[in-house]
């Protein structure tokens, strides 16, 4: 009888191993990891591990290039020495032009890196920032189930410029963008207050986060109504007042003018997107007003379909809340079935232990007969799988993310000037935006590849900047045509 139990135990383990191999050690499963968006949560951990190794290799093998880090440290050093007048906080690259959140974050980095001298430690810190941001980005993509994993694998690992911005340049743009993606994750999880705090923290590092503001304001109104929207705006304003308090209470005009200067004109020599314009046209006021008008017109035209997307998202989330008790009941029934099955199995084991001597003799003789007559392994009997009932409500994330990403993208298209570090403002949303068009897959990859080429062309040329605009216009027209024809 003991041999029967042992053989049964070994057979059970063997069956489980074979079932595991048949399910996962197959070409079909490997293909699903690459092509099925639902598999992205599994692929995420492989991406993060590979990114960790890649970024460490970049830090160890590629020389660091100084651009703004020393200036950041000088600006924060002035603050740490007691200077609260923004007009007097300067570095090698000019005056301090970022809000108070930037000052606090880089002041912490100032102390952690031995007054800014330990560059390699700063690079490892930025690797951590990069990995946290990638996790937040991939979490959104996993929820939406819109983009196949192989697309994210290709775009993530082939972008030299993005890895350079994070670990070889130490710009402040990544510090702002990580707060933005933290805020979006909170909004999708219905953690509105925390999301508003993160959003305002991002603005406190760099004002480019305001490019998302029109869509997020509409998102607030659709989901929360006007009264609760005012509460979220009050939270955002409160964070800004709290962070800026030391400067606002001493030199308020200098702080507001220095950190929120919307009229600042960039130098033509650093532009990535308008190299083909003469410097005279580039710095002209009429050019800037024209871009602002174009920006506003596109936001207004696409606000109606964006509002409908948000409305549908809100309705689906409400339906999810209504069905939660029913889903909980189904889960409870499944757990009860599993408990009953275990009880039956336990009861059968007890019955086996209480076999009579005659029954044990019969089983022993039956086992010998099996050994003599068997010509192969016993057949594997699989239990019928339970029917699964599931509704993927997280896929309605697509209705929220597209308008928010598109709002930022419109701001990028009509930006007065893009510098190389600004690539992080929209890089991680590009695969999503491109996959929201009706272009063929080859065209989608071509657009992503050409955009990457233009951002890696240094210094920018007339040709590269024109190419960048052509790609931007193609993506914007593709999404707009899809949105406007449906609505």
UniProtKB/TrEMBL annotation:
Coiled coil: none annotated. The chain crosses the membrane at residues 42-64, 96-115, 121-141, 162-184, 196-221, 233-253, 287-307, 399-418. Residues 330-358 are annotated as: Disordered. The keyword Transmembrane applies. It is found in: Endoplasmic reticulum membrane. It is a multi-pass membrane protein. Pathway: Protein modification; protein glycosylation. This is dolichyl-P-Man:Man5GlcNAc2-PP-dolichol alpha-1,3-mannosyltransferase. It comes from Lutzomyia longipalpis.
